[in-house]
Amino acid sequence: MNESFLLYHEPVFRPPAEADSVIVQVTLGCKWNQCRFCEMYSTKKFAVKSFETLEKEVTLLAGLHPETARVFLGDGDIFSADKDFVVKTLQLIKRSFPNLKRISAYASSREMGKYTAEELTEIKKAGLSLLYVGIESGDDEVLFMVKKGVTALQQINTLKQARQIGFKLSVMILNGLGGKKYSTQHAINSALLLNEIQPELLSLLVISFPMGQDHFRSRLDEDFHPLSQLETLKEMRLLIQYLELNQTVFRSDHASNYLVFRGGLNRDKERFLHQLDHIIENTVHIPRTRLRQQASFL
Ligand code: SF4
Predict the structure, then answer these.
(1) What is the pTM of this model?
(2) Does 149 share its domain with 271?
(3) 176-195, pLDDT tens digit by residue?
């Protein structure tokens, strides 16, 4: 058996932008693993790998991919490991890949918020530079409903601090997460939270139900009425309307999105709103693929 097959505990996830990165799986699964909308690591028991195992795996990966410029740290949240372990791992990776330009990881505000500013600074200096953070919502009622385990204010404080320390942030918001009941406050409060943080990258995804809507509903303590296609677009419009981001690159190009947008929010905001208005006014119900094509021609 090829030894490289021994490295990864499936399933392995990485952001689309990390398609060319070497993945070093530092932790397995998600320590929290309770968010009601998330099934990513529901089949995995959380664990932090031993440093001895990581040393062997990184040596093997460096031999297989000696020119690697980017490394992504799996799985769900690098800050669920302790600071000394993370620093030691980063130093190991930097030593092993001589052409390395970037180390990135998924991170949660909840676990990152347990680190002191000094500890985060040490990790930044050791080489971790880009964090992918699922904010999901800036609204406390939505965050509570889906059991995100963190409030909007905690997210603002933690992520502002991360920005001040020098981490680049690529953050995600989930369109439709609050259903019909919380749609307006979800859109507005998410925009206000993002305005505070000013992330480098913002991805808007649409909530999907990989195990069905009934399964999702069964995990909530209250009723949930999903948005229609039109309501999803209107919520997206409201979010963008309230965003005041100076240098953020915006993307809605995930498979879940109805509309594919990519651009700078300071430069392209009016164009996005104009296109959304056009589509909202003219949409009765168009299959998602056709809507994506229609948007790209506007
Ligand atoms: S913290 Fe992230 S990976 Fe863990 S359950 Fe929540 S959304 Fe899923």
Answers:
(1) 0.93
(2) yes
(3) 999 999 999 999 999 999 99
